[in-house]
Fold this sequence. Notes:
Layout: H1 3-46, H2 58-71, H3 73-105, H4 107-121, H5 129-136, H6 140-164, H7 168-176, H8 181-218, H9 224-233, H10 237-265
Amino acid sequence: MTLKNHKHLDNNLTQLNTNGKDAVKIIIRGIAFPLTIIIIWEFAARLGLVNQYFLPSPSKIFDTFSTMFISGELGRHLLASVKRLIYGFLITVIFAIPLGILVGKAKYFRYYVNPTLSFLQQIPPIAWIPIFILWLGIDEANKVAVIVYASFFPVFLNTVQGVNSVDPKLVEVGRAYMLTPMKMVCRIYIPSAVMSIFVGLRLGLSNCWRALVGAELIAASSGIGYLITEGRTLSQPNTIFVAIFTIGIAGSLLDLSLKRAEKKLMPWKKDV
Length: 272
């Protein structure tokens, strides 16, 4: 091995060690605050400073989590929620991105749809749940509809913004090469708008996860939202807290997955 290769290897090892140390620091900083709260919470519960019927200790919540996880009950409810989320989010992507590109490109068409979309955007998804139940029944369709409604506007609006921000010079180059409208979209508009589209996807995913849980609280026989309702009905605050923490953890993991996909597709983009 040459001296140049040795130096290159040493540089790689040094960079790897530095990245590893930075990752450890980030993890420690991230868990310090919630860990402090959990410790204080546990001591307060053990000393009798809080009523454990209303606010059970973290150790009791963890025991309930372990029991539900081992029995498979938690996994069953989480899987039901994630399936609904995937169906609804895929439908959103299929409709919101093409419509966003169309509205972003066709400025005159925008004048016709903007007032209606602006009106619908102000209505919270949970307000539509009774109507969706009336129209679609109490099965899966009404919950998927809530997900689509909740995630549509962030994806759509960010796609429109991304298309509007495309450099006009790139559009002129595409026209100079006589690209067809479809090739213009695939080679000019989508690559230029992809960063904005991913922002919309992350916002939409977060919105539809929260809206789904709200829909399950009202009309569902499975899912994380239903688990909260069941805990309330049976006066089991441990179960409610397990469901709440599961919502937060699962939502964070979903966002992280989309963020990693974004980083692979756009390695030049800085982490936010």
